Amino acid sequence: MEVSKIDNVIKQYGAKESALLAILQDIQTEEKYLPKDALEYVSQKMGIPLAQVFRLATFYNALSLKPRGRHKVDVCLGTACHVRGGEKILDKMERDLGIGVGETTKDKRFTLESVHCVGCCSLGPVAVIDGEVFGRLAQDKVPALLKEFK
Amino acid sequence: MKIQTKNDLEKTREEGLKSLYPGAIKISVGMATCGLSTGAGKVYEAIEKEIGKAKVPIRLERTGCIGFCQREPVVDILEPGKPRIFYQGVTPERCGELVEKWLEDRVVEDLLFCKMEKEDRILEGGVKDYAIQKIPSGIDGTPNYHQVPFYGKQLKIALRNCGFINPDHVEEYIARGGYFSLYKALFEMKPEEIIEEVKRSGLRGRGGAGFPTGAKWEACQKAKGDRKFILCNADEGDPGAYMDRSILEGDPHSVIEGMIIGAYAIGAHEGFIYVRDEYPLAIQKLKIAIGQAEEAGLLGGNILGSGFSLKINLFRGGGAFVCGESTALMASIEGKVGEPRAKHIHTTESGLWDKPSNLNNVETWNNIPIVVSRGAEWYSKIGTTGSKGTKVFSIVGKVKNTGLIEVPMGATLREIVYDIGGGIPDGKKFKAVQTGGPSGGCIPESLIDMPVDYDQLTEVGSMMGSGGMIVMDESTCMVDVAKYFMNFLKSESCGKCTSCREGTKRMHEILTEIAEGRGTTDHIELLKELGWVTAEASLCQLGATAPNPVLSTIRYFQDEYEEHIINKRCPAKVCRALLRYQILSDVCKRCGKCIKACPAEAITGKKKTKKEPGEAFKIDVEKCIKCGMCFEACKFEAIEVE
Description:
Chain A is of the alpha+beta class.
């Protein structure tokens, strides 16, 4: 990520410790992950030890140190989705995409993740793709759903 | 316009009333996350197109969720002199018909959900009568809103505005009595009087533990320090609970108003709302609401001309369950990792940046305007001896009617699951209700007539939590549920305390062994012991309550554990390692659907055609991955799970 862009993000929130999470999230939104040099730059620019920046980057589920694909699939494994077969949806996604949870397809099209509840419990099982929620899923609906994302 | 006087507030209310009841046809689409996930966005666009074609002016609005999420997308039509009509399961294709028929004084009968002749105005203590003069044809058989079993036993206080206002229009919130409580608090009450009122109302924290709200406020007000913080916990992490999301998406000003009243009572001038990263729409709605409140002079400097100031900041979480714990939440705002600390000194004395801080949950804040407006006496008449007011529950899982409901404290589980929830679908048998999220437990059928309040739930080994109620039927395995929660807690434990980090991990390992048929008879005692250590030796409530899902399922469903351990059977047919799929040859029609569905090529056989009888279908147990695809594909129930 270009240094000037990171500077803008830092400027927007202010170079204070309490803005660190928001800054990392914005970098991640832009890059889809947290590149090592970006973390180093943030640490230097904000005067926060790299260890602390790295600690945050590895503590929060929303942040990733690994590059991600064009589309992010989050299969919900909240309790309501679990009792309605959320795990089967995840298995089906794994089989169809040929990857496990936390992995990215070779063509960089999809990254597969699981999430603990997106708060759409009455329509479970649910998956979120690029922020859009899809409810009332079933295993046989998965192929058509994935096809929508090129 | 800056609202500086009561007159200004009244004027804004008038504007809001015009927006709520525009004197023309108004169509509202429920566009909270639940609506959007079932296509409300496309429905909105389709209606917009139809309105363009119509010859009379029709107003189109976005609103929040009316609670019956299962029936989304929900659309309602309001026209002066007619009952308000709610439609359910609306699709873009049907929108043309919906608008056309309405203009001909008719309705689309098969999409009808209910009608409403008057609207409850709980904040002001009245009703808005629609003054019906004309009834569209075709609605005779449609029940009134309060006759719908799902709504019949509900009392909506926290959800008062959800589905009735456009959350992006502050004047609509004001039109339904909003910000008048703030006016009353700022100009007619002393901070001590507000605290006294909240104390007398009996309001307890809606985030889970149920700490008396007034007592917390009092402690924070009395704490020494000139800089104090007011905080809102919107890090709704309990899987299966989403009332906070719905309130923030459908009625964000109710939370903001509550926070301003709280800040005034305590003497705080800075505040934070900590919202879960998984709730992007709630964040968006809050941003708009905060901006509007500031612009209107309801938030920021010199609120309503009173001289009191409050700045509220929005903080987006990073997706960590433990940040719902008060000290972890505060550490997270400070820019550190969300690890809890010991609370020898309460956060009301030393919290965020070591300053006195008052943290309440979304639903608690949302209840404040009503306590101020209707008074403690009115409020405390609702509920049970120790738990006052109402509670929002998300009733989900294996139940016919799923959605968000709000009932007075003390409603029984039977009323919730059967009267409101409509019972268990597909003729299956009820098994348990899980409450309190990962900190709670499973309540069995024998306790179904139990009144639900903070103390009763704790007594049976569960807890209120934020209000998730996951209904489970005979096809839910209790060992699997315990394993599920332990997997959740194991990955969400921050790792600071060894007892929690290792205890949840080890309990998950043992539960996995039981679920995979490697359990031994001493495992149950071992789980109890591990549970005890985890609860006793962990710093925060995540660890202290972590064993609840395990201990409560052992307490009420030990026979199911023993069935897994001794007979290596999963009675609910969930634990995969213990299952075997087979085809019943006498039922099988040899249609071939299962072969097509099987991803593991584990099914052999030949399809029956007009000319040939085909060959018997069989599942190769070695190849079968137990994904259940064949079971779902078979229309003749020829596949048996053992």
